[in-house]
């Protein structure tokens, strides 16, 4: 297998120039760049990732921490992250914590700074102290999908206004004429979906509508199914259900079907996020879409900037600097077939 030095000799350049071309770094003239690429192709050179990591003290990979790969949102988000990372020559390692902080800590200790040169964190139920420790060791960390832009987390992040998402969902149901509305929150009362529910409650309060009946449930189809059945059995006159995520919303539609209710004629259902299943369900789920691809691109770009600025300095060098936060575009209501005007039952 040809080496980087052999590619450099073939192209008539230094090994450092070859490295800069392959990693898309530094200033290399167009003619020289093409000469290097021609040499790479002619020799069939393939970089040895482990050797590169040892030689450069950095790995060409990024770690993406997710809470559950079984949740279809995370594969969709991971795909967007992978596409964004490839533009800088990075690979992505998916670290599935199964919502276990100890598993997350193990990933951080074993991968951050060795197999990956930066860490992207979704709602992976990680201890912030562990993330700060990772950062202090010189491995940049970026939180993705931070749900409260007005309350920065103290770590670099990309924020989405999920409170506004909940408000948009509530306004949509109110504009359709719904007044007896149930809510399914896919987390504990103080959990990650709290801002979404707060925005929904704000919309109802402003309209003078009584606070919705609420059930807290697992952020799954099964959790939404059980919560919806409990809501509908305790108050058969409910005409709509708001769920803080798409999976519980889909579960609510399944529960409605099992109870002999038609969606949306008897019960309107709305969720938040807009995963592929929301578009493919029947009826298709009305939802408040968040800019998943944009968040992935912003997060990868921010992490790359931190990686470039942190080498030779370590994270401690950023100690008193302002912690960066990027804010993604506002969520948008996507009306489909699962919501409509109420009819009395």
From TrEMBL:
Q: Which UniProt keywords apply?
A: DNA-binding, Transcription, Transcription regulation
User: CDD domains annotated for this entry?
Assistant: HTH_LacI
The chain positions of domain HTH lacI-type read 2-56
Q: Where is this region: Disordered?
A: 317-345
InterPro entries linked to this entry: HTH_LacI, LacI/GalR-like_sensor, Lambda_DNA-bd_dom_sf, Peripla_BP_I
For this UniProt entry, which segments traverse the membrane?
A: none
| Listed Pfam families | LacI, Peripla_BP_3
In alphabetical order, the GO MF annotations are: DNA-binding transcription factor activity; transcription cis-regulatory region binding
Instruction: Identify this protein by name.
Output: LacI family transcriptional regulator
Q: Which organism is it from?
A: Paraburkholderia ginsengiterrae
């Amino acid at each position: 297998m040809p080496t980087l030095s052999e590619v450099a000799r073939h192209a008539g350049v230094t090994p450092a120039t070859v490295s800069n071309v392959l990693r898309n770094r530094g200033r290399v003239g167009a003619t020289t760049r093409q000469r290097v690429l021609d040499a790479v192709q002619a020799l069939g050179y393939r970089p040895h990732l482990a050797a590169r990591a040892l030689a450069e003290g950095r790995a060409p990979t990024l770690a993406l921490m997710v809470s559950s790969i079984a949740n279809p949102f995370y594969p969709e988000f991971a795909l967007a992250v992978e596409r964004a990372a490839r533009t800088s020559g990075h690979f992505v390692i998916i670290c599935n914590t199964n919502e276990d902080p100890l598993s997350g800590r193990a990933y951080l200790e074993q991968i951050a700074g060795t197999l990956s040169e930066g860490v992207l964190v979704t709602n992976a139920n990680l201890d912030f102290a562990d993330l700060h420790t990772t950062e202090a060791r010189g491995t940049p960390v970026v939180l993705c999908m931070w749900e409260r832009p007005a309350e920065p987390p103290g770590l670099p992040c990309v924020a989405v206004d999920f409170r506004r998402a909940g408000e948009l969902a509530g306004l949509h149901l109110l504009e359709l004429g719904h007044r007896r509305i149930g809510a399914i929150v896919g987390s504990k009362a103080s959990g990650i979906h709290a801002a979404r529910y707060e925005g929904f409650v704000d919309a109802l309060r402003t309209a003078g509508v009584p606070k919705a009946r609420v059930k807290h449930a697992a952020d799954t189809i099964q959790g939404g199914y059980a919560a919806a059945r409990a809501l509908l059995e305790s108050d058969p006159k409910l005409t709509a259900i708001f769920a803080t995520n798409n999976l519980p919303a889909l579960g609510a539609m399944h529960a409605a079907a099992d109870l002999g209710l038609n969606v949306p004629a008897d019960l309107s259902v709305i969720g938040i996020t807009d995963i592929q299943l929301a578009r493919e369900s029947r009826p298709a789920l009305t939802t408040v879409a968040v800019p998943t691809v944009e968040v992935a691109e912003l997060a990868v770009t921010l992490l790359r900037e931190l990686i470039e600025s942190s080498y030779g300095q370590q994270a401690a060098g950023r100690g008193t600097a302002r912690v960066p936060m990027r804010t993604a575009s506002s969520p948008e209501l996507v009306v489909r077939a699962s919501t409509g005007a109420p009819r009395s039952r």
